[in-house]
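hiii so um. not sure if this is the right channel but i have a protein structure encoded as tokens and i wanna go backwards to a sequence. like what aa goes where. can anyone help
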């Protein structure tokens, strides 16, 4: 598919050249942004906006679920279950028009995002030390 808009081409290239770690962080950031936009729409009683934004979060959660390698062990399996829980929780939040339920998902996503960012930082620091021959713990 050809991209005619130079900005879209730039964005597509940026996403395609990101590391897996940064892509996951972007997905978490997007999910959080759309959850918050869904909450804002709910406050305005814009239920189409709520549904649209929560649907986008569900799309992100689906992407995280299908790209997760569940064969690596218990952590991956538990993460899958957590994504599935959040997905279903958002479906119910949309049906019930529950800001509380959306906030619960925001809290979970924020914790996952912060943990992922910290793990990535530690991994990159360790990887850098290994590449330059530092084997010490610090």
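sure thing!! here u go:
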């Amino acid at each position: 598919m050809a991209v005619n808009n130079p900005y879209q081409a730039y964005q597509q290239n940026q996403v395609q050249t990101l590391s897996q770690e940064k892509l996951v962080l972007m997905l978490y950031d997007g999910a959080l942004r759309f959850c918050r936009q869904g909450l804002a729409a709910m406050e305005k009683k814009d239920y189409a906006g709520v549904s649209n934004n929560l649907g986008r979060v569900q799309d992100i959660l689906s992407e995280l679920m299908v790209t997760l390698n569940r064969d690596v062990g218990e952590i991956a399996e538990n993460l899958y279950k957590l994504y599935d829980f959040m997905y279903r929780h958002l479906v119910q939040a949309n049906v019930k028009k529950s800001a509380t339920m959306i906030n619960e998902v925001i809290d979970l996503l924020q914790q996952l995002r912060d943990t992922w960012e910290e793990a990535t930082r530690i991994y990159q620091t360790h990887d850098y030390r290994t590449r330059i021959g530092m084997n010490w713990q610090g």
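oh and The mean pLDDT is 86.
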